[in-house]
Amino acid sequence: MLYYKFHQIKGNFQSLMGKWFARTITNGTLETEEVAQLIQNNCTVKYSDVLAVLKELQEVLTDKLQEGYSVHLENIGYFKISASSKVVDSLEEFNQTSDMRSPRVIFTPESTRVKNSDGKYHKVTALTYGVTLREMPKNENTTD
Predict the structure, then answer these.
(1) Which of 18, 58, 76, 116 is most buried per CB count within 10 Å?
(2) What are phi and psi of 101, to 5 degrees?
(3) Which domains does the chain possess?
(4) Is-contact 76 70, C-beta < 8 A?
(5) How far apart are CA 109 and CA 9, in angstroms?
(6) CB-based contacts of 109: which residues, under 8 Å, 6+ apart?
(7) Distance, CA of 6 to chain centre
(8) Nearest-CA neighbor of 21 among 7, 32, 31?
(9) Helices 47-66 and 32-41, packing angle to 10 deg
(10) Residue 17 DSSP label
(11) Angular region, 135: left φ>0, alpha ψ -120 to 50, beta rest
């Protein structure tokens, strides 16, 4: 279950001032150790083995992404590193140190096309398939 809360627009957006939008709420953050425990609970692999694999995954991802590879994790998605630069008037003016922006990791969730009951195709993302949305009850306190 994914909850959302309503927020009213305030600030410098005169045409939008006073209008409302919904934003999803997180229920907290699961750290690596908690994920390893959950995986152990669902299979026959020991916690220490799951933890070792998750930590090794981070190292392999780092190494391969920094070597310029895109990494595909089945039913999860694709990871790659991307960087862009400032615009320069000529190639002679380009300076890698000052004109390149910091690299960032791009994650693209795995998705597939599914035909609905009307015969139309729509995109289904693996990590969001089956999620249900519900308004956060008014009495719940959240920091989001």
Answers:
(1) 76
(2) -90, 165
(3) 30-128 (4.10.520.10)
(4) no
(5) 30
(6) 76, 77, 125, 126, 127, 128
(7) 22
(8) 7
(9) 130
(10) T
(11) beta
- Cα dihedral: 114, 61, 33, 133 (round 10): -30
**Which residue type does 87 have?**
V
* Beta strands 111-115; 121-125: pairing state: antiparallel
3-state secondary structure of 49: helix
pTM attached to this predicted model = 0.74
CA atoms 27, 33, 34, 36: torsion sign: positive
Exposed / middle / buried, residue 36 (Cβ in 10 Å: 0-12, 13-18, 19+): buried
Q: CA-to-CA distance for 115 and 122, rounded, in angstroms?
A: 6
Residue-wise pLDDT tens digits, 74-125: 999 999 999 999 999 999 999 999 999 999 999 999 998 888 888 899 888 9
How far apart, in whole angstroms, are the C-alpha atoms of residue 99 and residue 41? 48
Which helix (H) or strand (E) segment holds residue 25: the answer is strand 20-25
